[in-house]
User: What shape does this take?
Amino acid sequence: MKELADRLFLMIFNIEPANSPYLALWYALIIFLASFILLNFAALFAGITSFVERRIAARIQSRIGPNLVGPQGIIQWLADGIKLFLKEDLVPKDADKILFRFAPYFVFTGLFGAFVALPFGYGIIAADLNIGIYYILAFTSLVVLGIIMGGWSSNSKWALFGALRSAAQIISYEIPTGLSLMIVIMLAGSLSTQSIIMAQGGWPWEWFVFHSPFTLVGFFIFFTSSLAEGNRVPFDLPEAESELVSGYNTEYSGLRFLIFPMAEWANMWVVGALVTLTYLGGWQVPGVSLEAIQSSLLLILIGIAIFCIKSLAVVFIIIQLRWTLPRVRVDQMAFVCWTYFVPISLLSLIGTMIWMLIFPWETIIGTVIRIVMFGIGAGVTIWYLLRIRYNYITDKPRFERFKEAPQWYPPWKMP
Amino acid sequence: MVSAMENAVNAKSHLPVFQYFKNIYLLVVSILEGMAVTMSYLFRRPITIQYPYKMEESIDTVLPPQFRGILEVDLPYCIACLRCANTCPIDCIAIDLEKNAETKERFITRFDIDISKCMFCGLCVEGCSTGAIHHTKIFSGTSHYIENLVLEFVDTPVRPFKKPKSMEDIPFDKSGKIAKNKLKDFFSPPEFVIDHRKGEKYTRRVR
Ligand code: SF4
Ligand code: SF4
Assistant: This one.
């Protein structure tokens, strides 16, 4: 970011940045601009995803979803936001008023802080920290602080239950998350998000997922446990609607309430981007070397597009999982974590270490193994697609007999 | 997913190690299968009827024939058996029969259905032997006055129907014309007159 600011300074004012007295001011301006853009990106992403998620959920349930506000309901999220904005901001009588008011800010700061170290493309990152991954893990832990604060200070049993569950869940799942991230850190030899991406390649068999069977397992563990950390279904125990009204945010209203779901949706981008950058090759363009990307603006833009597409695909899978799986019970949540995820991620950490010794990345056997792993991944994907087709075709005659209309109605066709 | 975990807790039949890996396999496969099902729904036609914004055909044709809308009585075919009034669990049908003292003829003088009470259970329709009382496809009706929700089907007293040999002879009119007619002045305030037959205390609505 600093080089970018220096380059811009030179371009705009034609003065060497080092001998200008206004450099500090310029840096402050750039910092402000970057955080402004990131904040707006997070908020817009959260809003639009809330709309898109509802549309996808509706289609999964044979419904249509919100389609009345604006063309195809496209500004529904804005209407919801404005509505919540105008609501009264209530604080319960017996609540701990200060903590109650502060909790949403902790949640929001915890999530927004993570955006600082998330890359979007080559050099497009607010701060390329050399401890990027560590920073993200540490900073997102602030969310659980906010959740516990909110739950405890509302003086309501539902909120307290939600907060307690959230604490138990996030603390347990932090361990598999960290362990499965260790695999990537080992492979890349760095904690910086940009260097992790640079250690991978553009083609799928150059991604870390397909490095070995162990990283494939690590990928799934990382994906699932970051779902659990973000309180997404099937791990949405802290806000289990059917059991706890709304969990830790039961007593909130108005703008303060708005921050909780917004943070949850913004977190989907954080999960998507983290999965993409650690395991799915980040912004690497297939068939293009790193030097070529550095020198061409077009390739950087293509890289941004690739990164966004990959992250959005992960976000889509998160959404789809939410509308596929039922919520797990508390004991199941802890059981899965401690008997499956933790030992398996430890095992795959050690396995990857040994693998790295026996089959180094650059050797022919290493490459062959990666291509074979990619073949397995592609096979599973093809099997999945065939299952989708099978499900579609088996129901087709029945549907068409009852509804007397063709069943084919792809998602891009707007009702 | 859940059953895989249940098996893991009560592992009896298999070696624990074998069970452990089988659980993982079941977990992955069942999640993938579930996702394949939900994904296939993205390519199917939604079954929502976008009433009243986007209707390709009129709502009457879209609704299924067994739809239970507002009740309607085709009075000329009512045999006045009172079965519907007696079956109704919440007594929202009121039928009055009066006998002419000279000719010994019976007349239906009142057939009121209070649709503000009706829960559209359809029990009255099932009991009717001639099909005189039946559901229409009318479901949208709002009124500012709850009195308007009492549908009075008797305008002038009618004789009960004589049941024919075969039910095919009864020409049903299920288009809902009669009920629609009754619902016409839904928004106008009800007018009341004093019902002299029942004394000063009773008022009766006129339509
Ligand atoms: S539909 Fe049910 S509630 Fe309504 S009048 Fe008939 S029996 Fe009574
Ligand atoms: S409507 Fe049917 S059930 Fe009711 S009194 Fe008439 S014939 Fe009998």
Summary: Chain A has a mean pLDDT of 84. DSSP finds 14 helices and two strands in chain A. The first strand of chain A starts at residue 119 and ends at 121.
